[in-house]
Amino acid sequence: MKSLRALLVTYAGVMPSMLMLVGFLVLPLAIILVFSFLTPGPYGGVEPQVSVAAYVKLFFQKDLYGDLTFNSSVLEIAFRSVKIAAISVLGCVLLGAPVAYYIAQQPKRRRNTLLLLITIPFWTNLLIRTYSWIIILRDNGLVNNFLISANLTEAPVKLLYTEGSVVIGLVYTYVPFMILPIYAALERLDAGLIEAARDLYASKWRSVTSVVIPLAAPGFTAGSILVFIPCLGTFVAPELLGGGKHLMLGSLVQMQFAAGRNWPYGSALAMMIMAVVLVCLTIFALNARKTGGGMQH
Amino acid sequence: MRLNATTNMPLNRLPESKPDLKKDKQDVVIPAIEMTDLCKVYSGETPVNALHNANLEVHDNEFFTLLGPSGCGKSTLLRLIAGFETVTSGNLKLFGEELSALPPEKRPINTVFQHYSLFPHMTVLENVAFGLRRQGKSERDAKMTAKEMLDLVQLDQYAQRYPKQLSGGQQQRVALARALAPHPRVLLLDEPLSALDLKLRQSMRVELKRLQRETSITFVFVTHDQEEALAMSDRIAVLSNGRIQQVSDPATIYEHPENRFVADFIGDANFFDAKIDKVDGEFTRYRLSTGDILLGPTTEARSEGAEVSIFFRPEKATVSLDLTGGLRGRVKDILYLGDSTEYRIYLADQSEISLKAENLKDGSPLAEVGTDVAVSVDPNAIRVLSR
Fold first, then answer.
1. Which residues of A touch B165 (CB under 8 A)?
2. Does the predicted model carry a pTM greater than 0.90?
3. Contacts of residue A292 in chain B, CB cutoff 8 Å?
4. B-chain residues within 8 Å CB-CB of A214?
5. Which of B322, B331, B328 is nearest to B367 (CA)?
């Protein structure tokens, strides 16, 4: 009986977190997984009839004669999504790292204020914030009006409804998720190490690249993951700023559950996003282990 | 793991030294470091005057120590030399060249940091090679010199380890090898021994001194430990409240401190307020505040009746049960210290003095607590300071 008691004691402690994991992660995922193997109902929802049609539809389509032919459009969308998400991660690093570095250099009181300012955009609805980018980027928007009045261009430059505008929207939305983990890593960094590098003939820039960045690597990794995953599944920015022309996986999923009324297909797509994320993270992790092979953290 | 083998290392195993600036001007000895009226004020809501008009010369090839309690400005001085702090006013020269405007990476000066500050993401070898690489040496040359430096501190077999995998003493020696590898003109050491245990600290004292002799690099050593300073230094600068109190060799600092702070901070001292009673040639009679008379040396420019402060070191006095001469007192405490025994003695006015007697025989005390004793001091061991 002792072992049962021991088991109870062990599991009682982790019960809340187990419940949370089951309720918020395992259960919804299981529902999506089950849905993906069912048949679509006529007005959305699912019929309890097992089918793999949704997965077949990811890669094949029925031609005029009813035969299955390979269809690459979902793969193309997946590839574009990974590309846009990756570029957005890069944009977030380029924009977020200097901001994080700057904040980490400030006196303690000031740092907290600045961190609060970073989170201010979250106080406003994402849809509204994304709409305001339309006003900035459109043909007679802020940017183009400025370019024209400064005589830098005669006709407005096409900014809106491009992949570029999608990336801008994504970087804008997710850069705080990059800044915060990098800041956390930099804040822990021993300032003495930078002095040691400078003392050993490293220029300011060199001490950043050879000491600060390698030691803040965990922050960069965490930030990249936190930005990459939501970017991959996003649909607000591609819909509004991409004009629906630059479809991403998230938009595709959203379409299936709304206008498409094909829940199993949407669920299958969602599973595919997970697969893509897992593959990307694995590549990322393997790469990190190779380059940071010597890290003893 | 000891460093003893370093004595056998030929000097040419060290990286080449840079062209000697000193040879440009014959006969004129240019100090390694020269500061004139050097000031540092930390600005802020309440500006802190960390260093007041410091004037100091550190000679080439010297083991120089900055000694003082925490907050005395010694670390500020070191950071000014290294370039981590900017000079507020005054001049700071390295072998005759003004340093103030140069960033740390442009100064041929390296630092051994108090907490070592080894790069945790680099191996020991990479740590030691870092400065050499930044100096523009090829990876191969840098690694080779780094290996030689690790040899010098007897850590060659740890080259591929990470700093975390080493003990404190080993990390200390990696820090030393890393700072010495680029062969700086001046090596700064910021309380490098403070984190080590006593035995290791004592053996490192010997090794540091030895390394300084072998490398002929000027060492500027910062410490608050007076024993460390006395043991290792060619010369010591004592600092207090951002001012340099005295600059001298260890024996002079200990035997002839120039003011009460130095006398009090280095070693123990029994102070008395005294009045000059009678000058009698070589010796002078000093009347203590206790009423006792103490014979001490005659100092110039002080006449009878002048108020002075006199002191003697605990080990310069002897305690005796024969009450015919000297200062009368009663033993309050006896502290057995192993190599010596300390007697704390009440004088007539309830002031307390301390005496130290070497335990030459079996260490049994010369007197017991509560007994009346006489304390006699060699007149030549009495020091006189202005009040």
1. 296
2. no
3. 121
4. 121
5. B331
- The mean per-residue pLDDT over the stretch A76-103 comes to 94
What is the C-alpha to C-alpha distance for residues B66 and B113, in angstroms, rounded to an integer?
A: 15
Cα-Cα-Cα-Cα dihedral sign, residues B303, B305, B311, B317: positive
Spatial distance between the Cα atoms of B140 and B258, rounded to a whole number of angstroms: 53
Residue A135: CB atoms within 10 Å: 11
Chain A residue numbers with beta carbons less than 8 Å from the beta carbon of B149 are none
Contacts of B122 (CB under 8 A, 6+ apart): A294, B130, B162
How many Å apart are CA A287 and CA A224, to the nearest integer?
14
pLDDT bucket at B76, cuts 50 / 70 / 90: very high
Domains belonging to chain A, first-starting first, are: 72-291 (1.10.3720.10)
Convert the pLDDT of each residue in A26-55 to its tens digit: 999 999 999 999 999 888 888 888 998 889
On the 0-12 / 13-18 / 19+ scale of CB atoms within 10 A, A157 is middle
The token duo for B282 is: 């070589």
Residue of A240, A230, A103 lying closest to A169 (CA atoms): A240
CA distance from start to end of chain B: 50
Q: In this predicted complex, what is the ipTM? A: 0.80
Chain B CB contacts of A205 under 8 Å are none
The chain A residue lying nearest B132, using CA atoms, is: A200
- Give the chain A residue whose CA is nearest to the CA of B121: A295
In one-letter notation, the amino acid at residue A111 is: R
Q: Would you call A202 and B182 a contact, using CB atoms and an 8 Å cutoff?
A: no
Q: Do A200 and B182 touch (CB under 8 A)?
A: yes
Average pLDDT over residues A213-238: 90
Residues of A in CB contact (< 8 Å) with B are 190, 192-193, 195-204, 206, 210-211, 214-215, 292, 294-297
Return the H-helix or E-strand segment holding A30: helix A27-36
| CB spacing of B109 vs A295 below 8 angstroms | no
What are the tens digits of pLDDT across the range B328-350? 899 999 998 888 899 999 988 88
- Which chain B residues contact residue A199 at CB under 8 A? 82-84, 104-105, 109-111, 131, 179
Nearest chain B CA: its distance from A193 CA (Å) = 5
Other CB atoms within a 10 A radius of the CB of residue A188 amount to: 12
Q: How far is B250 from chain A (nearest CA, A)?
A: 30
E-state strands within chain A: 39-40, 46-47, 60-62, 68-70
Contacts across the A-B interface (CB distance below 8 Å)? 74
Within 10 angstroms of residue A173's Cβ, the number of other Cβ atoms is 23
- Would you call A199 and B104 a contact, using CB atoms and an 8 Å cutoff? yes
Q: Where do the domains of chain B lie, and which CATH numbers do they carry? A: 4-261 (3.40.50.300), 268-386 (2.40.50.140)
**Which residues does A136 contact at the CB level (< 8 Å), separation at least 6?**
A142, A143
Mean residue pLDDT of chain A comes to 88
List the one residue out of B185, B159, B188 whose CA is nearest residue B176.
Answer: B188
